[in-house]
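Page 47, continued from p. 46.
Same chain as before, 147 aa.
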Amino acid sequence: MITFYNDWDRSLSELRRQMSQLLDDFDTDWPTTNLFGWGKTWPRINFADAGDKLIMTAEVPGLSEKDVSVAIEQDVLSITGERHIQPPEGYSVHRQERGDFKFVRSIGMPCKVEAEKATATVRNGVLTVALPKVPEAQPKRIEVRTS
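Result:
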């Protein structure tokens, strides 16, 4: 009878360990592939319409303007970036949880934009891209009159 409980206890411990690993693999903030082959979309973005332009902001912590590039091709905005982590000269690594990575994110434009006038800046870990709309895509104000 004692053997039964010991085996049962070991089985539950193993199940608990596997469930814990499964949840750890699923709950990640960086662009990694987890147990099911899914990856979270990164960087996270906000896309807003400001009337005469579109504004896209993306979280890119730890990256500078040299690490990120932005391109517009056929009404698709693409953001690419790369981070390399190297220890300072003369130091050895004892634990490294932040590693090198590359990312690419593409977003379809909801309207035509003037790519030549677009601007992109990185400040405090946030990439901001301003995309002026072509005049035909900008909102028009229609005067309302009485009849």
